[in-house]
Amino acid sequence: MTARFRPQTPRDRLVLAVDTADVAAARAVVDETAGTIGVYKIGLELIYAGGLDLVRDLVAGGERVFLDAKLLDIDNTVAGAIRSIVTLGVDMVTLHAYPKAMAAAAAARGAAPLALLGVTVLTSMDEADFADAGYRGTVEERVRARAAQAAAAGLDGIVCSPREIAAVRAAAGPDLLIVTPGVRPAGSAAGDQKRIATPAEAIRAGADLLVVGRPIVGAPDRREAARRIVDEIAGALG
After folding, report:
1. pLDDT, position 1
2. Fewest beta carbons within 10 Å, which of 30, 50, 86, 195?
3. For the residues 90-98, what does the mean pLDDT come to?
């Protein structure tokens, strides 16, 4: 088995969310940020717009790729999807952190180098949204439970907001990879994210990987915006 991805440098910890339905625009983002980004995240919007060809090109070019597929289905379908994703050669893939789906994914992945990440509670949700969705208890309680289940199922990491990092570490131990979206540099608009932090705050809380999208993609100088975030990560690692 080839070792699964673990960040080694400040740049490794920066994940750029290439969230667009325009493949040509996505390629331009990659071209303008190459060499400053640790991992490129390709999500549902781009996947369904033909983005898998870009994924293949990124993998062939030696870039790290995070396929944000957020899988959730019956066990057999999740397992089949994971086996297909393994053939793409990406480094990471997400699935919703439901116990049966996570167990099916881990069994189907086997010894392949694909890292499996369980999505706990979306960072666009606050406590009111969580209650409206029919869940009992708090967001942190649910994240903590799902993190423990992810570790038990053999997943490599989870996705949670910066607010739940300490709870995840307490529930799942030091080895589970914590991937944190909802990261906004100071002064950036929150957009549709509700449980957010700056890059330095997220790193100091214990995040391993930071997912950043619009603050880089929408910047006048994308390369410089990425460099500033990497510098902030390095400072927080101190």
Report:
1. 46
2. 50
3. 97
Q: Is 149 annotated as a binding residue?
A: no
Do the beta carbons of residue 75 and residue 101 sit within 8 Å? Answer: yes
Nearest to 199 by CA among 233, 166, 231, 168: 233
Nearest to 237 by CA among 211, 212, 200, 209: 200
The Cα–Cα gap between 22 and 86 comes to 25
Q: What is the CATH number of the domain that holds 76?
A: 3.20.20.70
Percent of the chain with pLDDT over 70: 95
100 is in an annotated binding site: no
Domain that holds residue 106: 11-237
Q: Does 97 map to a domain?
A: yes
Q: Any known ligand binding at 126?
A: no
Total domain count, the chain: 1
Quick: pLDDT tens for 128-157. 988 999 999 998 999 999 999 999 999 999
